[in-house]
Amino acid sequence: MPTQTKFIIFIVLVVIIIGGAGAYFSFKPEGPGKLDDFAQCLSSSGAKFYGAFWCSHCQDQKKDFGSSKKYLPYVECSTPDGQDQLPVCKDAGVKGFPTWIFANGEKISGRLSLETLAEKTMCVLPQ
Questions:
Q1: Confidence check: pLDDT of 3 > 80
Q2: In a domain? residue 84
Q3: Do 72 and 116 belong together in one domain?
């Protein structure tokens, strides 16, 4: 086999191996998140996190939870076109995003620290 053909086969194999490794690490299931229990406690406490998909502060609040964001008591308020608010949020009196409403009825607008959320819900923030 000519040297050029061997080189091409080698390059193709390297690309396949690198592509396979990239696919594996891209789709590898995530393990438990550091804040899974905390986020689940927030939900169990009766707290609600009202936001909109287009809201950068809402995205930042979700990022605070990393992979545990899936357990947040998140309520999407925006219509799909981003031009109006859904009735569930209008009924809750949400005026801005993000807004947290706690079980006692307290309503706080803005991105909240994890420590504030722990204080308001009595949920334990992991060390």
A1: no
A2: yes
A3: yes
Domain enclosing residue 12, as ranges? 1-30
- Both 92 and 40 in one domain: the answer is yes
The answer to whether 53 touches 78, Cβ cutoff 8 Å, is: yes
Q: Mean pLDDT across the chain, nearest whole number? A: 89
**What is the distance between the alpha carbons of residues 63 and 55, in angstroms, rounded to a whole number?**
13
Q: Are residues 85 and 113 in the same domain?
A: yes
Task: Dig out the tokens for 31 from the structure.
Answer: 């393990």
Q: DSSP secondary-structure letter at 70?
A: G
β-pairing, 99-101 vs 48-51, is antiparallel
pLDDT, tens only, 63-74:
999 999 999 999
Beta strands in the chain (DSSP E): 48-51, 74-76, 99-101, 107-109
Per-residue pLDDT reduced to its tens digit, 35-58: 999 999 999 999 999 999 999 999
